[in-house]
Amino acid sequence: MDVSRRRAMTAVGVAVTAGLAGCGDPGSRRTSTPLFVTNESDMELRVTLRIYELPEPSDGENGTETTNTPATSDLEQILVERTTLSAEGGAFSLEAGSVPDAPLRVRISTDEGPTDSYDWYRPDAQSTLDVRIGNQSIRFTELA
Which whole number is the average pLDDT over 61-69? Predict the structure, then answer.
């Protein structure tokens, strides 16, 4: 069976593109960037990101970890970032080293859209939180 030069070059091009896109490396989602925020809504949004440090979980009965999560007003705020994100894809990220490797509460608020928070028990410096702001809700996804 002869393979035409065009088919061979197409196959090589697809393989190279997949490799460069990270499709061949299952660990390619890990990054030193701790947090990404993307506006997926259909309107420009003024976004405020606030990060608070949560207390470390304590050992409870029978050696299980327990966390008595305090109100946000009782937490120490460690970072505030405000920016305007364009509609359908406007984004920003935090630089490596800008947040500690500790339990955190991430709060996102918008002037004209949804507001939500997420308690993130960040295990290490390579952990990343991906935040997507939609028209009616905010989705938080931990990238492993």
Answer: 57
Residue 24, C-beta contacts closer than 8 angstroms, at least 6 positions apart: 18
Cα 78 to chain center, whole Å? 17
112: pLDDT confidence band, cut at 50, 70 and 90? confident
Lowest mean pLDDT among 30-39, 62-71, 113-122: 62-71
Q: For residue 99, what is the DSSP state? A: S
Nearest-angstrom CA–CA distance, 28 and 132: 20
Q: Kindly list the strands in the beta sheet with 91-93, ordered across the sheet, starting from the edge strand earlier in the chain.
A: 91-93, 35-39, 128-133, 138-143
- Tell which residue, 113, 112, 144, 118, has the closest CA to residue 131: 118
pTM of the model: 0.71
Residue with tokens 């090589």, as numbered in its chain: 12
Handedness of CA 59, 61, 65, 71 (dihedral sign): negative
What is the residue-wise DSSP string for 43-81?
Answer: S-EEEEEEEEEPPPPEE-GGG-EE--PPPGGGSEEEEEE
